[in-house]
Amino acid sequence: MDQFPVELVAKIFKLAACEIHTAISLARVSKPVHSWIIPSLYKSIHLRSDTDTMLLQRTLHGSSAMVLAPKIKTISFGFVHVPPGFGDLLSQICTNLYHINLSHHDLSDMMKSFRTLNRVQWLTVQGQLRIVELYHPIPYLGNVTHLHFPEDSPYYFHFQDSFPSVTHFSCAYRPAAISSGYKLRPGFLKQVLAKSNPGMQVIVVHVSLEWVLQSVPGAGDEEMLAYLEKLEKEDKRVVVRPYEDLEDDVEAMWNYADGVIAKRETSLQ
């Protein structure tokens, strides 16, 4: 491929490395290919074990840190222990980190480690939130603009007290009889839409209709679904989607919602 410009060759390899196993194999082809591929692997980091966290910490202390750290944009935490100073390390050298994805179990303790990460604007919290809200107070996160709860909807916390800068909000409503923990109170959405949240631009509710096939809807479920349908018609900021359409790629989810609302605004002009 010597006859092709280096920039073109690098682009071809980067496109081919969209899947992790392929990327690792390509990185072994040569030193130039290695230098093109490896930084792209650091865009989204998944820490599934304490070993993963230790290895990342070692990398960020190593000679390649200044090259790789700015590539990191998203870090997803499994059930891992965050070592002392890890948050400060990320704050100092991961200058483009904007999204943290973590479990509901770890929200309060984990976010204490990231107090200095003021640039992190996207937060995704996995799992049932009632556990968080009852036993682990949600900290004040004034810098978060995009807040995503893919599996549940908040119950107790005062939205404006914890996330005053949020412009994009997403939660799940899953009225299946198998779990009473997935009830979305109409009052909460009214709170999100209230005048006390003047900067709110997008609200996405992912609805699972499992009960249609599996069980009888619980008390208030039909009213809730009717309320969401009415809300979407009346407020252009609200997007109601099937839970099954929820993307693993959070950026794709926000882009979809922004696109829907942009079309609504265009149609009103």
Structure description:
The chain is of the alpha/beta class and 269 residues long. The protein folds into 2 domains: 1-41; 98-268, no CATH class. The protein contains 13 helices and 8 strands. The chain has an 8-stranded parallel β-sheet with strand order 1-2-3-4-5-6-7-8, with helices on both faces. Strand 3 (99-103), helix 7 and strand 4 form a beta-alpha-beta unit. Residues 212-216 have low confidence and may be disordered. It comes from Gymnopus androsaceus JB14. This is F-box domain-containing protein.
The SS-based structural class is alpha/beta
Q: Tell me the distance between the termini.
A: 52 Å
Count of beta strands: 8
Average of the residue pLDDT scores: 78
Number of spatially distinct domains: 2
Largest sheet features = 8 strands, parallel
Show unreliable segments.
212-216
> Strand order within the widest sheet?
1-2-3-4-5-6-7-8
What is the CA-atom radius of gyration, in angstroms? Answer: 21 Å
The arrangement of helices and strands along the chain is HHHEHHEHEHEHEHEHEHHEH
State the helix count: 13
Helix content: 40-55%
Morphology: globular
Please describe the topology of this protein:
Layout: H1 6-16, H2 20-26, H3 31-41, E1 44-47, H4 50-61, H5 65-68, E2 74-77, H6 86-93, E3 99-103, H7 107-112, E4 122-126, H8 129-135, E5 146-148, H9 159-162, E6 168-173, H10 186-193, E7 202-207, H11 211-214, H12 221-234, E8 238-242, H13 250-268
Parallel strand pairs: 1-2, 2-3, 3-4, 4-5, 5-6, 6-7, 7-8
